[in-house]
UniProtKB/TrEMBL annotation:
It holds the Pfam family HIT. A motif (Histidine triad motif) lies at residues 98-102. One of its GO terms (biological process) is nucleotide metabolic process. It comes from the Bacteria. CDD domains: HINT_subgroup. GO terms for molecular function: catalytic activity. The active site is at residue 100. Residues 5-113 form the HIT domain. This is HIT family protein.
């Protein structure tokens, strides 16, 4: 796909600070460097978001995430944790529409990155939780 910035990075048409590459996956430093070592992991196959993954893409990416995360931790011994973030769709803050996983090393509570979740557990009954779970479960396709 010629108009995809990540496809162009993978093809070498746009320079990047490559961290890892094999036949299926490419990883490079995010230009924003939210924290030192902030790395993007992308499948080489152009896939827009998680809703377009097939099993092969999912396995390829999932197998490499720990390998690359551990390399970041080894390279930066002060890493105390890591957020692994994948945004899907514009509403979910996806800005490049070639699926990618952010590996964000965490050093301190003040390292300028935060994810916050609202706790709404008291807003729903157990019956409502069970109904939601059953609805989702009924849509899971066996492969």
């Amino acid at each position: 796909m010629t108009d995809c910035i990540f496809c162009n990075i993978i093809d070498g048409d746009i320079p990047s600070a490559k961290v890892y590459e094999d036949d299926e996956v490419f990883a490079f430093l995010d230009m924003s460097q939210v924290t030192p070592g902030h790395t993007l992991v992308v499948p080489k196959k152009h896939v827009e978001n998680i809703f377009e993954y097939d099993e092969d893409v999912a396995v390829a990416v999932a197998k490499r995430l720990p390998k690359i995360a551990n390399a970041i931790k080894e390279a930066f011994p002060d890493v105390k944790g890591m957020n692994i973030v994948n945004n899907n769709g514009e509403l979910a803050y996806q800005s490049v529409f070639h699926t990618h996983w952010h590996l964000l090393p965490r050093y301190t509570e003040d390292d300028k990155f935060a994810i916050e979740f609202s706790n709404n557990q008291d807003s729903y009954t157990q019956e409502e939780f069970n109904e939601r779970a059953a609805l989702i479960a009924s849509q899971i396709k066996e492969s």
